[in-house]
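pasting for ref
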Amino acid sequence: MSVLAIRSQFTQAADNAEFPDFNNGYYYPVDARLRLMRDPERWAMVVELLGYNPRGGNLFDVVHTFGSCLTSGEPGFRGDGSFLERVENMDEAEGDEETYTGAGLVVRGRRIFVEAPTGTRRSRPYACSSPRTVICSWPTPPSYTGGYPEICR
């Protein structure tokens, strides 16, 4: 494990537009998470960007993985499951005019009511809700639940 090897992964991902982009024009950012792991032989980094994507019509968790021990794929965001939809009741939560209905958002089976009036444009309820509330509804790290694909061996 060398600094040069780690930097090389980051540079390649940035050149391929696969490095975490906190200023992405395709979604409204809500929050981010960073997890790091290393031992004498291996290292891994997982970056999750949570944001509302109007084109996808949902709150997405975009997962970027880097490391010397990846189980599949290349460093950057994983094409086999990088974009994880987080709101389970989007049809109920948004109205016909792409507005918030006031029904709350169901994340991992839990209904979260946000501080946004009925009729608010659909991207706004995510900005109005506390990021901490949404984050508490995120899955726990893969090492604890097996909820994500195994990232590092």
